[in-house]
Amino acid sequence: MTPTSIKLLLGGILVLLFTTKELLAQTLSVTGEVKTPLTLTASDLHALERTEVTAKDRDGKEHRYAGVALTAILRKAGATLGGELRGENLSKYLIAKAGDGYEVLFSLAEVDAEFSGRTILVADSVDGAPLPQGVGPFRLVIPDEKRPARWIRELKSLEIRFAK
């Protein structure tokens, strides 16, 4: 190999690594106590049933968020929800993780609309525009919480575990 071909090969490897990193940054994984672990892209989320919620963000202003209900994503992964969420399954919980390492915890029952009567959204847009860099591509939005401390920016993963 010539020095030029080595440089071209190394440049191609760097481009591949950068592209792979960017693609992974734009996915949402669902793992743990589910029947079908998932890795979802933005287009995968757009293929699911869309919904919108209005909620006050940290700025105190109302915004219109669009995306997919968290329960729809969990159902697609085969999580225990609805009528199956009883007995020992009530000790399951969800850890939502952000790209920067921030994590929040929910009991599985509190994210299930059949238990809580609320819609938690995995949002990909706000006020008709994609989520800005540093917030998206995915954000967890919980409209009825008084403080948006569990509204995860740059949502990367959802993991279901048993408390036992």
Describe the structure.
With 164 residues, this protein is of the alpha+beta class. It has a single domain (28-162), classed as Alpha-Beta Complex (Sulfite Oxidase, Chain A, domain 2), CATH 3.90.420.10. 27% of the residues lie in helices and 34% in strands. It has five helices and ten strands. It has helices at residues 3-25, 42-47, 70-76, 108-111, 113-116; strands at residues 27-32, 38-41, 51-56, 62-69, 92-98, 103-107, 121-126, 129-130, 139-141, 155-162. The strands form two sheets. A five-stranded mixed sheet has the order 2-1-10-5-6. Strands 3, 4, 7, 8 and 9 form a five-stranded antiparallel sheet that branches. The longest helix is centred in the first third of the chain and has 23 residues, at 3-25. The radius of gyration is 18 Å and the shape is globular. The N and C termini lie far apart (57 Å). Residues 27-159 form the Oxidoreductase molybdopterin-binding domain. It comes from Runella defluvii. This is DMSO/TMAO reductase YedYZ molybdopterin-dependent catalytic subunit.
